[in-house]
Amino acid sequence: MKTVKVDTSSPYDILIGRGLIKNAGPLVKNVSDAEKITVITDTNVEKYYAESVVSSLKNSGFDTSLFVYEAGEKSKNLGTIEKMYSHMADFRMSRKDIVVALGGGVCGDMAGFAAASYMRGIDFIQIPTSLLAQVDSSVGGKTGVDIAQGKNLVGAFHQPVLVIIDPDTLSTLPDYYINDGMAEVIKYGCIKDSALFKILEEKNALEIIDDVIESCVSIKRDVVNRDEKESGERMLLNFGHTLGHSLEKIYNFEGLSHGQAVAIGMVMITEASEKAGLTEKGTLEKIISLCKKYNLPVSDNADVDEIINYCASDKKAGGGNVNLVLLRKIGDSFIRKTPLDELNGFLG
Ligand SMILES: NC(=O)c1ccc[n+]([C@@H]2O[C@H](COP(=O)([O-])OP(=O)(O)OC[C@H]3O[C@@H](n4cnc5c(N)ncnc54)[C@H](O)[C@@H]3O)[C@@H](O)[C@H]2O)c1
Q1: Quick check: pTM over 0.90?
Q2: Ligand 1 atom at minimal distance to the Cα of residue 128
Q3: Is 287 helix (H, G, I), strand (E, B) or coil?
Q4: How confident is the model over 9-63, as pLDDT tens digits?
Q5: Ligand 1 site-directed mutation target among 6, 21, 109, most atoms within 8 Å of CB
Q6: How far, in Å, from the CA of 111 to the mean position of ligand 1?
Q7: Can you give the C-alpha Rg of the chain in angstroms?
Q8: Whose CA is closest to atom 2 on ligand 1?
Q9: Among 89, 121, 131, 327, which is most buried by a count of CB atoms within 10 Å?
Q10: The ligand 1 atom nearest the CA atom of 106
Q11: 125 in Cβ contact with 101 (< 8 Å)
Q12: What gap in Å lies between CA 240 and CA 31, rounded to an integer?
């Protein structure tokens, strides 16, 4: 088992190891003296993993209940959160009890937000089961839900007390979501780790996924340790995301997955910054090849003006500027505050 230690305002461990979820009970017992646990999961993950996690928790003496929501981003709303609150209140959860998020990024974001707000905040544990959640969303404490006006517009920073990553769970994850998570993996190589990028080029990431996950969460840990609330360096994690989010909105979050949109966003922004002389020549080509290797798209026909319009409405754009994350070269990134009215010239 590998352990990555996070040193945020409330420190916690990220445990990575095959078969770990079968030992969820003893692992949770090490960090909590709760009496009751609500395990939150979705209709897909329930089929494969709920029983073993719940029985391990029960065997360790926890009074455990299960809350299951319909799988998918459409469930990530305040209606589902309200049902979670009711379930936890009916189960008579107290302030020292805990929530376990067993699932992908949607599950972690919602269960984390429910934990952040139920009784003004109780502990929660992440057991991420999608690649995206294992390399990215389960670490760092961003929780929340979507509202009609935008994705992730309501939420809270709430760090988990433990993250348990079992790479064996990826065996049941559909390829579509494996590719999706690989976009975030490539992102980490681009922004912080040229050695990781090289490994992704030379090997099949899925054959060495435990090491890849460790590299990714270690990068995220380092960034979040230095900038927990995203006032500076943490923005680097948004490489490819500003344009990617715009593309997702143009397609109304259907037809183009988050990872696919991020891949196109990384390519578009690097094409522009290489043209502007801000990025080492040849970087674009490397990113395109790597995205293609992992079955990710590298271009889209969406109109640049439309993309820019959506950038302007992004919750992270402020004061007429957008913080673009650019690469000097692979493994070396920086933030460039760019006026929205210069974005067309930059991308065009
Ligand atoms: N909090 C953060 O820092 C952060 C970062 C990035 C993304 N996110 C959020 O994460 C969400 C996307 O995450 P996601 O793609 O994991 O979504 P998800 O939770 O919907 O999971 C994707 C799909 O995979 C299924 N699934 C998950 N694990 C499985 C497994 N082991 N076997 C079989 N099926 C499995 C789910 O049921 C779902 O259908 C978005 O809502 C995004 O906003 C949050």
Answers
A1: yes
A2: 28
A3: helix
A4: 999 999 999 999 999 999 999 999 999 999 999 999 999 999 999 999 999 999 9
A5: 109
A6: 12
A7: 20
A8: 137
A9: 131
A10: 19
A11: yes
A12: 36
